[in-house]
């Protein structure tokens, strides 16, 4: 059985950050090859006058990549971000962000000196109010244009080396859909249909788990900024031993439509969502990037899979077997890696019949037109699923306690060496920096807390709920405001 391929096929979806700071997507910034925007607090680049950071030359590693991608100078993602920028902000202390305006993960407050640990919880254990809030925030993000980021709709060459910027607005949610497409797309070698398929800067190699960890942290951060709810965390879906998609209800991620089982129920807010970047084969045939336009409704058809390939969702025993693999990565550190925790978790390692009879597939699968995973982030289940994948990753890190130096330094597929900046994130982050415990990044999982901490966590949540009730009338992001995006029978309509 193939663990994550199980998830891929049971959550079949048909055609369903780069993450460029808006301030760096101008002709001037591209020609200067500099992304060092001013911090609003003092007007200086990177908040330098306030000691938040400074503008500096980007340094990239010259250590060799693996043989899977035999080209150089053809893809904008190579040696990220040098094709676009050779100077960016480097923040100091607890500051973070493309202009050092934000706090590092796990830190809060005006001066980023308040250390707090957030807790990600099982979505099925959330209260009704928490579920409503989650769906409301997701829908708000889908319908709010990002103020900070735009997405590239052309290659650097098509932009005439920066003279003709090609960027588009996208919603807060869709920026992250585009990020996931961009990092995993085929390399465009020039001309229609001329692509290299054996390349992916976030999958099928060591950076799979660190990259998605950073992705979720950025997504969580953007939702907090959008809503003003600093206590928000992404819940996880523990799909072990589940008999079906138990988050596919109208209260959560949407039931299936009675008229068309591949569509979502009209009773779910997600039934009105449109997907983007879902036609990878078409983009390859035309030799272009996704242009971030809407491409049809969100589709999902859980359970409608080939049971000769996979029978069911993963079991607890199968996950535990995977956690028992002591080597993070092995061999060529790609899809062929043998007895590798990462490769087994991701879904490529074949095992003997005495062990796990298949592999784990890392992402929710769509139809073949989605090419398995590039457009999977269109579905909000993607976030819940990856939060649980990250939880499994966290369990492995705590069990074996590897040091960052144990992450592969060289000869991994392009984009996956330890010193490589993760594509396409700005601010810059290296793969090895997320080969550490979640506790060092300011978050925990409820199922990993010991009994005393779980009790203390419930007390903290109770206090947060009381405080939220006090603030609800003054916050523009309360449920009354959000109700225009989501059709709930709330008290707002009766006020």
From TrEMBL:
Source domain of life: Eukaryota
Transmembrane segments: none
Cofactor(s) recorded in Swiss-Prot or TrEMBL: Cu(2+)
Broad EC category: oxidoreductase
Pfam family, one: Tyrosinase
PANTHER family registered for this protein in UniProt: TYROSINASE (PTHR11474:SF124), TYROSINASE FAMILY MEMBER (PTHR11474)
Topological category with respect to the lipid bilayer: Single-pass type I membrane protein
Record protein name field: Tyrosinase
